[in-house]
Inverse folding.
């Protein structure tokens, strides 16, 4: 051992390296190595530098610091803290360089949750997402348990937000900011506690508290974990490109916001969470028409209306005309804030707000919604007894079977079961469920108002049943009264293909399967699939009932109206619709990944499915042109797929290819992804990078992963169980189609469809109908003859090709088997 306590540089060298302590330590450590190589006798001053000489720093570059990357850093820290002794022995040190466009005051909040946003939440908040247990294997004997718990508790967004709220003060704040959000908050309070499964406050409130909690975690890391993690922040910086000339040493092109000068920074790994690429539907300035495309903030909106000379004595003057582009959630954000500048809504201690109909009569035509489709976002109704009154016509096991089938357009097939289940619950015919889609926007909004009032009275509504059904299939489940119980039973039957895959993972895999290029090239247009998928997503992402009811009542009272119009026409300076004029226009921005500079920079550098759509490997790693892995993980919109028009397709028939995920902007997805990405693609990749040169660390990571996969034989044995189930659901599908063709009213449909549950009952009905409905029965028999063979995926197709992300149990297996290499 050589002691360097008296080691001194010459004055010249000391001057050069005066401010670079890391380089000083490196030179001292190198000296120790030379002394040992030449067998210089051990000196007492070498001990410290022999120990640190093997420490390896792996550099991670983070593009964006919203919820996804901020939660990722905390989860990484929690795992490293729980395994402190192991990582100290290993000498692994991580350095994070964080580039964020917003100021430090917004760090961790993300674009959608900017701290001054008074737009209401549309969903509840995710609670604690547990890290894979095995990654915390030293916690039982490590004295740092309280600190690990402290870090992981800071990822419990729901608890953090509710702990940070003073209920009385928050009510006063919401009264001024957003009265509809106040109504949501009052509704969510149960026995002095806030029900965080409901939307209950503004996005800015969440952003403020999340920012503070993230800062708490970062302060702890800075003060207590420098030996394992160091973090460097670059706020007010944007990442404008990725350079992958050397795939194992990717570079981020960064520059200060507002500057034209950029520089390249090299890393071992980069994490692309580039933020929300917003695009305004119209220019910010139009001749003679003031436009507001900013954040929904009550103060800024009042100031805008004042500048437009639309306020008298602090209230919007009657006769004013305000346009709003779109009828989506982002358009709805502005309505409560605008109405708060009128006398239409009055504060209420028990309800949040009340509508003054006399005042509303003075504001006829105040709000004009402009959209081409005229399809308003529906209300978000939930009810614990949805589908409780009828036997589930499609079970979770049957949905699982349907999603196992290769090259299968499952959504249109499922739709028949879905409408059957909803119709049976309501005593209607399935075709009657479509009637509201033929309504004018005003009529539909008035119908929604009636349904929402029924929902407030505890009744099951049609829109609620539709949303519940869509939500269940969205997570890969059937129309179960108790989805959790059905899920547990299925996992016991099929652990290899089901365990921890319902929800986010399964929906991503299901989208991936129908957007494969080979599938689309074979003549399977998925346009119809995505038309239905859009309806599903639109319904699931409905507006909170308290927000929606305020807006739908404005349609009923004549305060709001809708006109058909194209945003491009408005952008050219034309009127918002034929002869329709407004005094001011609110134009909420929409997501457009073409505005993502990093995504655009990938062109010509990475392997693609088709032009404009990167190909992703397991773990969301990009691939170089030669097929090798780029050390860049994409958590942004790159996996949303690209529209293509294939030869021979009609003018409007565009399919989507290369879709791997579509939940970039959701808090739940951010939290769940961070909990698995932290130990797997961050830490195990870093460990693999540390273990030496000669093999790509990502290849090594996937080698770890492949060793944990089941054998082809075991997987085939499990999926074979579902062959008879596949036959059964196809026979049921044909039978329900028959029922739909031959019935004339809801009671008759309920009676016939009740026989769907077993083959003997179905055949008896078919026999009885044979003479009266010849064509319908022939169609039924033709459908039975044409049932496809059951064709489930192989191990490679299922685990590597379908699922781009790792499940928690897969992380556990990889960690348990291969992290032992550190010991």
């Amino acid at each position: 051992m050589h002691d360097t306590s008296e080691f001194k540089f010459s004055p010249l060298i000391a001057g050069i390296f005066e401010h670079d302590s890391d380089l000083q330590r490196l030179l001292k450590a190198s000296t120790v190595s030379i002394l040992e190589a030449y067998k210089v006798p051990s000196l007492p001053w070498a001990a410290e530098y022999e120990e640190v000489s093997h420490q390896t720093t792996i550099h991670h570059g983070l593009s964006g610091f919203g919820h996804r990357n901020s939660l990722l850093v905390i989860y990484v820290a929690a795992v490293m803290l729980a395994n402190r002794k192991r990582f100290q022995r290993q000498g692994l040190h991580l350095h994070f360089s964080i580039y964020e466009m917003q100021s430090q005051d917004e760090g961790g909040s993300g674009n959608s949750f900017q701290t001054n946003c008074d737009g209401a939440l549309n969903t509840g908040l995710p609670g604690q997402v547990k890290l894979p247990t095995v990654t915390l294997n030293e916690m039982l004997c490590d004295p740092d348990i309280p600190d690990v718990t402290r870090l992981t508790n800071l990822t419990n967004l729901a608890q953090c937000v509710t702990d940070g709220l003073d209920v009385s003060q928050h009510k006063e704040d919401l009264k001024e900011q957003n009265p509809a959000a106040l109504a949501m908050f009052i509704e969510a309070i149960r026995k002095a506690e806030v029900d965080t499964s409901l939307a209950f406050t503004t996005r800015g409130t969440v952003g403020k508290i999340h920012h503070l909690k993230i800062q708490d975690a970062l302060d702890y890391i800075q003060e207590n974990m420098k030996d394992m993690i160091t973090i460097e922040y670059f706020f007010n910086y944007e990442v404008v490109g990725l350079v992958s000339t050397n795939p194992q040493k990717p570079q981020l092109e960064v520059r200060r916001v507002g500057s034209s000068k950029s520089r390249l920074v090299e890393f071992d790994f980069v994490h692309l969470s580039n933020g929300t690429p917003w695009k305004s539907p119209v220019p910010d300035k139009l001749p003679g028409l003031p436009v507001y495309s900013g954040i929904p903030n009550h103060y800024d909106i009042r100031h805008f209306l004042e500048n437009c000379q639309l306020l008298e004595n602090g209230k919007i003057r009657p006769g004013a005309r305000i346009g709003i582009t779109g009828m989506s959630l982002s358009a709805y954000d502005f309505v409560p804030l605008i109405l708060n500048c009128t006398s239409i809504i009055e504060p209420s201690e028990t309800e949040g707000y009340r509508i003054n109909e006399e005042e509303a009569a003075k504001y006829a035509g105040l709000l004009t919604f402009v959209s081409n489709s005229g399809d308003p976002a529906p209300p978000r109704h939930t009810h614990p007894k949805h589908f409780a009154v009828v036997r589930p016509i499609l079970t979770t096991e049957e949905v699982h079977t349907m999603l196992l089938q290769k090259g299968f357009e499952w959504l249109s097939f499922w739709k028949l079961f879905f409408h059957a289940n909803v119709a049976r619950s309501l005593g209607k015919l399935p075709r009657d469920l479509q009637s509201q889609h033929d309504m004018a926007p005003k009529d539909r909004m008035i119908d929604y108002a009636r349904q929402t009032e029924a929902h407030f009275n505890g009744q099951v509504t049609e829109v609620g049943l539709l949303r519940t059904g869509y939500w269940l299939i969205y997570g890969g489940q059937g129309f179960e009264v108790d989805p959790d119980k059905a899920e547990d039973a299925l996992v016991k039957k099929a652990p290899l293909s089901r365990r921890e895959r319902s929800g986010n993972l399964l929906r991503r895999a299901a989208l991936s399967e129908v957007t494969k290029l080979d599938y689309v090239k074979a003549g399977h247009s998925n346009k119809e699939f995505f038309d239905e998928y859009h309806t599903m997503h639109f319904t699931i992402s409905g507006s909170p009932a308290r927000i929606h009811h305020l807006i739908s009542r404005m349609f009923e009272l004549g305060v709001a109206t809708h006109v058909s119009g194209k945003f491009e026409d408005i952008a050219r300076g034309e009127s918002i619709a034929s002869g329709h004029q407004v005094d001011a226009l609110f134009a909420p921005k929409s997501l457009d990944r073409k505005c993502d500079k990093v995504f655009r920079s990938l062109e010509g550098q990475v392997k693609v499915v088709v032009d404009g759509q990167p190909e992703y490997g397991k773990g969301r790693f990009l691939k170089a042109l030669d097929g090798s892995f780029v050390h860049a993980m994409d958590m942004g919109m790159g996996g949303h797929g690209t529209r293509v028009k294939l030869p021979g397709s009609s003018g409007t028939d565009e399919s989507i290819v290369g879709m791997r995920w579509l939940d970039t902007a959701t808090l739940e997805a951010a939290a769940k992804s961070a909990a698995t990405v932290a130990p797997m693609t961050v830490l195990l990749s870093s460990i693999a990078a540390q273990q030496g040169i000669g093999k790509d660390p990502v290849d090594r990571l996937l080698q770890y992963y492949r060793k944990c996969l089941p054998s082809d034989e075991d997987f085939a044995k499990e999926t074979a169980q579902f062959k008879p189930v596949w036959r059964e659901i196809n026979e049921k599908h044909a039978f329900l189609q028959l029922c739909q063709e031959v019935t004339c009213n809801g009671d008759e449909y309920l009676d016939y469809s009740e026989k769907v549950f077993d083959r003997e009952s179905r055949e008896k009905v078919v026999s009885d109908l044979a003479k009266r409905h010849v064509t319908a029965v022939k169609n039924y028999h033709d459908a039975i003859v044409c049932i496809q063979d059951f064709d489930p995926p192989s191990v490679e197709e299922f685990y590597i090709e379908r699922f781009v992300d790792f499940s928690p149990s897969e992380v556990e297996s990889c960690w348990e088997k291969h992290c032992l290499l550190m010991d």
